[in-house]
């Protein structure tokens, strides 16, 4: 299987080094997530005691001076992602909290494993609980789903890609989670790869015209062309495309395209209607990539929980 390398547990569970996530973006996400849960969108006060008082249940039932320890625990087997982001949720409401990592992003975990331990004011831990779990559960669900695809095509040379079918506002986190699961990111947005699709061809008049116009406007950018037929592949290759998106082609058609392209410096991506059941068969055709929108738009969460204990 395509097993990720063993990772040392981070000394600082909030450290974003190596994630590719911007600290500013993560802190904005944490703020937005907490205000959604605690204030209904109003700005969250910086003073922790004031902030956690919005959790009416915890404010009423937990003494303000009570400290405790909580474990973020896996309730199902999977691959974890988003732990540094979840850790920052806790430190936003409890700046002095002590955090200990039990797992690193990208690790396979089993039901019952402790992923993160936090010690701090109990009110703050409980006020942060759902926001931290929502973030880590969503990211870990995507990482777990991606790992299943990566394992399915392991050894073929094909790479599993995500798409732009992401949750609005969560794209950096979701694409990071794909990487944690052993997949790769196709493009982050409309700005970093030119994707010529049927509507662009219709507007420009032909594949060749569309590619030429993109080359004129952005000469250094990678140009990908969507192809539904082998005839369109020939047209796209002749037009100078760098990358072909082979949409809803049969495995026989994919093999034909792989043979047609041969040693040309053109990458091939299979997409459309792919399932885990056929992933290996598709990868064995010789394509470079399988793109799977479901990684980000349909992955179920990984069930995680926060267990408060004494001490």
Describe the structure.
The chain is α/β, with parallel strands linked by helices. The chain has two domains: 23-147 and 300-309, Quinolinate phosphoribosyl transferase, N-terminal domain (Aldehyde Oxidoreductase, domain 3), CATH 3.90.1170.20; 152-297, TIM Barrel, CATH 3.20.20. Helix content is 42%, strand content 17%. It is built from twelve helices and twelve strands. It has helices at 23-38, 48-52, 56-61, 83-93, 122-152, 171-180, 198-204, 207-217, 230-239, 251-261, 276-283, 294-297; strands spanning 67-74, 78-79, 98-101, 108-109, 114-121, 159-161, 194-196, 223-227, 243-247, 267-271, 289-291, 304-309. The strands form three sheets. The chain has a six-stranded parallel sheet. The protein has a four-stranded antiparallel sheet with strand order 3-5-1-12, covered by helices on one side. A two-stranded antiparallel sheet has the order 2-4. Helix 1 crosses helix 4, helix 4 (83-93) runs antiparallel to helix 5 (122-152) and helix 9 runs parallel beside helix 10 (251-261). It is elongated, with a radius of gyration of 23 Å. The two termini are 40 Å apart.
């Amino acid at each position: 299987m395509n097993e990720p390398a063993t990772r040392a547990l981070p000394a600082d569970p909030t450290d974003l080094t190596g994630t590719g996530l911007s600290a500013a973006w993560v802190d904005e996400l944490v703020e937005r997530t907490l205000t959604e849960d605690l204030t209904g969108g109003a700005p969250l006060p910086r003073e922790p005691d004031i902030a956690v008082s919005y959790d009416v249940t915890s404010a009423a039932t937990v003494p303000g001076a009570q400290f405790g320890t909580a474990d973020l625990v896996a309730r199902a087997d999977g691959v974890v992602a988003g732990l540094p982001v979840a850790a920052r949720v806790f430190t936003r409401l409890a700046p002095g909290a002590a955090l200990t990592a039990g797992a690193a992003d990208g690790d396979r975990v089993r039901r019952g494993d402790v992923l993160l331990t936090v010690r701090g004011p109990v009110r703050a831990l409980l006020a942060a609980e759902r926001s931290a779990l929502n973030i880590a559960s969503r990211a870990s669900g995507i990482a777990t789903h991606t790992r299943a695809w990566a394992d399915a095509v392991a050894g073929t040379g094909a790479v599993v890609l995500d798409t732009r079918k992401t949750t609005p506002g969560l794209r950096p986190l979701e694409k990071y989670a794909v990487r944690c699961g052993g997949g790769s990111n196709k493009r982050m947005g409309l700005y970093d790869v030119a994707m010529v699709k049927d509507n662009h061809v219709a507007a420009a008049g032909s594949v060749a015209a569309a590619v030429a116009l993109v080359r004129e406007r952005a000469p250094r950018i990678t140009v990908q062309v969507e192809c539904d037929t082998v005839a369109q592949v020939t047209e796209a290759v002749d037009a100078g495309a760098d990358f072909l998106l082979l949409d809803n082609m049969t495995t026989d058609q994919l093999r034909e395209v792989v043979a047609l392209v041969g040693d040309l410096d053109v990458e091939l991506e299979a997409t459309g209607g792919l399932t885990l059941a056929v992933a290996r068969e598709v990868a064995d055709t010789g394509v470079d990539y399988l793109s799977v929108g479901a990684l980000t738009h349909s992955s179920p969460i990984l069930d995680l929980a926060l267990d408060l204990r004494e001490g």
